[in-house]
Structure to design on (427 residues):
């Protein structure tokens, strides 16, 4: 099967877009030029001068299967990601059962292979059942397909357990990916400890709850030689600790989520569970620190933390609703509209933070678009506006604070291994 994408445009290193056509054959990019004879191809797709990029890479999603299929499944989560232009995603292990043995992890991969429409990599947990102090078998997990270890959703509470986990991760050449949260500093908090929490009469989550564990962990990473990756950084203190650790030569990388770049706690209109997430929306100084951290390289990449929940459970108050919002279907579009079109980021920076950089820090075969690469591609319409409508989501989750926002950069096509898996108007 030979496919031609004609009349597209791609970003050059000087941040200019130039006309391009892409020749795909047997799932591989065989040529990138300006024009190829259309009669040589079985299928021709007219990109209509829209932007062609490598398929987006998201190293932080929750697909909820097995155990919570009413929230999301591998099938619905993966097509929702394709709808957003993602071709490779990494799924968290807070499932039921937790895939904390090679056998359980293999069972998850069997479901992924059967149902996923894009490339899905599965994390293995750091400890058994996520909340225990007993380490999983890192070597066995790696053999079963785990690309990294994480207890996302909960922080590893004891330094000794984290030290041993990092030693084991380093010995097996696995990244240790941390949700950083010191339970002893939570004090039953449900949103950022700031003026809005006081106004709503809700218990706050201190910034130091996150940053203190990062400070502990970077020293443990230095002692063990582990690759330590910080999930969804949200505070200015966390950015400072990570920046200092990088200057010291410690192997630490970090991600930030779109909602923390765009929103602050003052944006929360009322005690509404759709605005509840972990880490919570922070203050304006935190948001600015995250943006600066991206721009200066302290934060390496952008990840959605796509976290679908049932509608009824998210319609509750902050005290009762679960943490999390969805993000797969509009992440690029949010950031393009509010940062690239406004001149804060360049288009090249945004694409890099969502493709080559997350792939490179984890050594993934993804995120690039060169001759010989897998044809994992996305095509975005940067000119036309559309409104975010949760009723049209392909994810089972509609829990978003961005409903009704007007965005640019909607996904027109998504290809995985040269196969068209998403087409606007065709799904």
């Amino acid at each position: 099967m030979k496919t031609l994408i004609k009349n597209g445009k791609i970003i050059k290193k000087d941040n200019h877009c130039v006309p391009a056509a892409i020749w795909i054959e047997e799932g591989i990019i065989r040529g990138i030029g300006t024009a190829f004879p259309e009669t040589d191809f079985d299928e021709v797709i007219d990109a209509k001068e829209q932007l062609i990029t490598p398929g987006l890479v998201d190293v932080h999603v929750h697909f909820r299967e097995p155990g919570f299929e009413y929230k999301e499944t591998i099938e619905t989560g993966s097509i929702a990601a394709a709808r957003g232009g993602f071709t490779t995603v990494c799924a968290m292990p807070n499932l039921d059962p937790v895939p904390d043995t090679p056998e359980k992890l293999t069972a998850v991969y069997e479901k992924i292979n059967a149902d996923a429409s894009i490339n899905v990599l599965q994390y293995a947990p750091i400890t058994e059942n996520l909340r225990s102090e007993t380490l999983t078998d890192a070597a066995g997990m790696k053999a079963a397909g785990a690309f990294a270890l994480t207890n996302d959703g909960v922080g590893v509470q004891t330094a000794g357990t984290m030290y041993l986990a990092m030693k084991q991760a380093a010995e097996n050449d696995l990244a240790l990916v941390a949700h950083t949260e010191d339970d002893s500093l939570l004090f039953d908090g449900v949103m950022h400890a700031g003026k809005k929490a006081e106004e709503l009469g809700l218990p706050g989550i201190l910034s130091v709850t996150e940053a203190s564990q990062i400070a502990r962990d970077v020293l443990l990473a230095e002692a063990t030689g582990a690759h330590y990756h910080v999930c969804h950084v949200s505070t200015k203190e966390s950015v400072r600790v990570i920046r200092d650790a990088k200057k010291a030569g410690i192997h630490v990388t970090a991600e930030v989520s779109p909602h923390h770049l765009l929103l602050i706690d003052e944006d929360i209109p009322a005690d509404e569970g759709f605005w509840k997430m972990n880490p919570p929306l922070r203050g304006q100084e935190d948001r600015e620190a995250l943006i600066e951290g991206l721009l200066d390289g302290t934060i390496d990449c952008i990840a959605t933390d796509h976290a679908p929940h049932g509608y009824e459970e998210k319609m509750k108050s902050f005290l009762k609703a679960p943490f999390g919002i969805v993000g797969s279907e509009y992440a690029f579009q949010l950031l393009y509209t509010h940062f690239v079109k406004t001149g804060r980021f360049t288009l090249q920076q945004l694409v890099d933070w969502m493709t080559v950089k997350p792939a490179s820090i984890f050594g993934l075969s993804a995120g690039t678009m060169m001759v010989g690469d897998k044809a994992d591609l996305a095509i975005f319409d940067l000119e036309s506006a559309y409104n975010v409508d949760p009723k049209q989501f392909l994810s089972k989750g509609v829990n978003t604070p961005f409903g009704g926002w007007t965005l640019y950069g909607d996904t027109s096509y998504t290809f995985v291994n040269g196969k068209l898996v998403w087409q606007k108007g065709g799904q």
User: Anything to note?
Assistant: The two ends are 22 Å apart (CA to CA). The mean pLDDT is 97. The CA atoms of residues 108 and 129 lie 15 Å apart.
